[in-house]
């Protein structure tokens, strides 16, 4: 048998790549279009709960035929109390394979990939479903993915006002300071949910709750706003979907099942179903379904996280690493 080698990119390698906002957005938008055209395979994520801590593992699986031609599996831990040990709540590994032979092609630290691709999916959702002149962002949550939500949304919309909130004052203040420094504009850390969300053109809810609690009130949502709730535990009221013109998800197969997710109760009560679902985002990106059609629409996008996004961004990082000579080459067999 011929020797088999695989690429390895650790966190330091990925930081050295200095992948740009536009490179991230382009990779994710292309993968969504591939999904919409039916050029991908995606299986619903599965969960592993070790039962020894406040957290679980997500296992995401998928393949993209065109134009990437790769299969992938990502395992990401989601452990709420990691901050007490100075660790991020989400640590992840991405494995990429040749879909024709099963040969492993790469191992990547996917903690950063998870954050980046989540933010990019949020931003691409807003590109197609939010008002083009959206100028106020209200963001709940300050975990790793939150930074990329705000950064990539601002890349597309150049907000006049950015508000952020999270449960711990030290967390939300540090988050606002980091964003203000990196974006070069003021970012306001609010003391409560209402002052963060009310009147915002785009609302992102990425809270970290221990159990479902309806902290985001439907009455606070501005007519014509775009809302993205994606916390693991629901923080929204059942009435939220009642005010929406369009309900969009990333992958209906994932959203309609499982025990976690912001709109789990909405699925279980029939408020979100195949009958009420407007589209998957990929169908909109591919031009098969319409996105926002008027400024009057109040739209919602729920994303659980796509293995396809991990594969696409991992592939883009590998291609850039090869061009720049970054990373390591490991002997597999």
UniProtKB/TrEMBL annotation:
Pfam families: OCD_Mu_crystall. One of its GO terms (cellular component) is cytoplasm. It comes from Aliidongia dinghuensis. This is Ornithine cyclodeaminase. Gene3D superfamilies: NAD(P)-binding Rossmann-like Domain, ornithine cyclodeaminase, domain 1. InterPro entries: NAD(P)-bd_dom_sf, ODC_Mu_crystall, ODC_N.
């Amino acid at each position: 048998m011929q020797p088999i080698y695989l690429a390895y990119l650790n966190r330091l390698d990925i930081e050295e790549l200095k992948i740009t906002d536009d490179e991230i957005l382009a990779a994710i938008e292309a993968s969504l279009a591939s999904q919409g055209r039916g050029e991908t395979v995606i299986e619903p994520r599965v969960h592993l709960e070790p039962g020894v801590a406040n957290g679980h593992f997500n296992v995401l699986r998928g393949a993209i035929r065109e134009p990437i031609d790769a299969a992938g599996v990502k395992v990401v831990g989601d452990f709420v109390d990691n901050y007490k040990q100075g660790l991020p709540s989400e640590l992840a590994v991405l494995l990429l394979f040749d879909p024709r032979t099963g040969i492993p092609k790469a191992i990547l630290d996917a903690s950063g990939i998870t954050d980046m691709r989540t933010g990019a999916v949020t931003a691409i959702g807003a590109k197609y479903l939010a008002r083009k002149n959206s100028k106020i962002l209200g963001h709940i949550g300050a975990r790793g993915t939150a930074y990329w939500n705000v950064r990539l949304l601002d890349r597309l919309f150049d907000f006049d006002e950015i508000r952020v909130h999270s449960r711990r004052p030290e967390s939300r203040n540090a988050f606002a300071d980091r964003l203000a420094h990196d974006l070069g504009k003021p970012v306001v850390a609010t003391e409560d949910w209402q002052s963060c969300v009310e009147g915002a053109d785009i609302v992102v809810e990425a809270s970290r709750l221990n159990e479902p609690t309806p902290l985001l009130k439907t009455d606070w949502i501005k007519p014509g706003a775009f809302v993205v709730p994606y916390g693991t535990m629901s923080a929204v009221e059942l009435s939220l979907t009642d005010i929406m013109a369009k309900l969009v998800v990333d992958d209906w197969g994932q959203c309609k099942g499982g025990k976690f997710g912001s709109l789990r109760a909405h699925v279980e009560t029939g408020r979100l179903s195949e009958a009420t679902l407007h589209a998957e985002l990929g169908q909109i990106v591919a031009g098969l379904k319409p996105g926002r059609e008027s400024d009057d629409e109040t739209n919602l996008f729920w994303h659980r996280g796509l293995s396809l996004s991990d594969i696409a961004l991992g592939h883009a990082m590998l291609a850039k690493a090869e061009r720049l000579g970054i990373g390591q080459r490991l002997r597999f067999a």
